Amino acid sequence: KQEVTQIPAALSVPEGENLVLNCSFTDSAIYNLQWFRQDPGKGLTSLLLIQSSQREQTSGRLNASLDKSSGRSTLYIAASQPGDSATYLCAVDPGTASKLTFGTGTRLQVTL
Amino acid sequence: GAVVSQHPSRVICKSGTSVKIECRSLDFQATTMFWYRQFPKQSLMLMATSNEGSKATYEQGVEKDKFLINHASLTLSTLTVTSAHPEDSSFYICSASGFQTVETQYFGPGTRLLVL
Question: Per-residue confidence of chain A (112 residues) as pLDDT tens digits?
């Protein structure tokens, strides 16, 4: 059974800092991995999707990397802003019926 | 494109009553819809997967007679929580796939259920 863990569970940084969120998964047989953002009481916004054959994806200040063999992914946020404050979730897709397994999430707070 | 809506956004009901939550794909035909549950400060847990016109597939530990799922059309799936109890209070989120690719899921905004 796939297990997805995110470290740290919570993180508080001052505005402008670069930061890294970590995601690890136990079964490396994945089809893709996605990073989502969730604001309090809201649904999910997809940030980046990395196919199993890819090493990284970039969108603006966000960069996600994937090391499938070691079961790890990182989300790098450059020059953090207060608007980045949210919970960040990673999810792995095994490719069979697209049943996503979500990580435990990292709650990020960017302070002024 | 690829917008998914849910209704209602929040609902409060008495213990023992049934509550229906709608999930709609507004601008695409969703071949598959997924229902997730999220307890406070926890991650999303998949409850069931439904394909249009067929019975839903439930995850282990999810009671199919308690959580009735109907995927009657390519744009609408409903989740009915029957005889709701306080422990059913949670955040329910649906997702839909079928826009451009079958793999990508587009998530609704969620429904907050509180059972008194």
Answer: 899 999 999 999 999 999 999 999 999 999 999 999 999 888 899 899 999 999 999 999 999 999 999 999 999 999 999 999 999 999 999 876 668 999 989 999 999 9
Any CB–CB contact under 8 A between B44 and chain A?
Answer: yes
Burial letters B40-51, b for 16+ CB under 10 A, else e: eeebbebbbbbb
Number of Cβ pairs closer than 8 Å across A and B?
A: 52
Judge contact between B108 and B91, C-beta under 8 A: no
Name the minimum distance, in Å, from the CA of B81 to any CA of chain A: 20
CA distance B63 to B59: 9
Which residue among A100, A101, A105 sits closest to B105, beta carbon to beta carbon? A100
